Amino acid sequence: MTGRTPPGSRAGAGWSTGPVAVDAQGFPVTRTPAGVARSARGARDLAVLDARISGCRACPRLVTWREEVARVKRASFRDEDYWGRPVPGLGPASARIAVVGLAPAAHGGNRTGRVFTGDRSGDWIFAALWRAGLTNQPTSTHVGDGLEPTGVRVAAAVRCAPPDNAPTPAERDTCSPWLARELALLPDLRVVVVLGGFGWTALWPVLAGAGYPLPRPRPAFGHGVEVTLEGPRGPLTLLGSYHVSQQNTFTGRLTEPMLDAVLSRATELAGPG
């Protein structure tokens, strides 16, 4: 596994207060669901939050899997140094749009250390974000490739690569405070684009905890579904999109025009930055 720090972070730079365990790379270690909640709640900015996410070890099954993948590696990446950790979000605190996916890919984000980077799903989402004017380039292959999101923060409901790309409900709930705090640290947030039904389900308790009254019954997930909530920071609109998984993109269930339409609607709703 690699000793790289997340983009924009520096090991030891004010990530914690008081005595706290850190790992070999200086990331604060969290080992329990209660610890995740405390650590997330206390993160004062995105850099601190990203570092705390990177040291999380609260889900034993996911820790074992992500580290095994990073040790064994895929043959085509055998000379690379895998990240092998939870993957933090990407994008500025000024973002008016958030994109929430499922989880890092075993040989994508789990390898590169950057969400959606280095796999076919990332090829789709970053190209679409570029077409929508939300990134400076259409590709994202590795940390340091020059990618800069503008006006958008990209994250995942679960931060560790899961076996079979299938986190358990308990793992989703344990990881939930990271997403809750991440969205709370985006003061200008107006739109959340949710990729897939898993993220759609994961987001509702996050929003309830943030003070947004939830509709009853909760709207079912679907591509193009749009729900606007009134909350403590004004209106927030959720937009559903099929996930950019190979299963969806290879079969034509999700096409580029379909994804572009959702992101176009997001930028329209978000307004000028």
From TrEMBL:
It comes from the Bacteria. GO terms for molecular function: 4 iron, 4 sulfur cluster binding; DNA-deoxyinosine glycosylase activity; metal ion binding; uracil DNA N-glycosylase activity. SMART domains: UDG, UreE_C. This is Type-5 uracil-DNA glycosylase. GO terms for biological process: base-excision repair. Transmembrane segments: none annotated. Signal peptide: none annotated. The keyword DNA damage applies. Belongs to the uracil-DNA glycosylase (UDG) superfamily. Type 5 (UDGb) family. It comes from Geodermatophilus amargosae. Keywords: 4Fe-4S, DNA damage, DNA repair, Hydrolase, Iron, Iron-sulfur, Metal-binding. Residues 88-263 form the Uracil-DNA glycosylase-like domain.
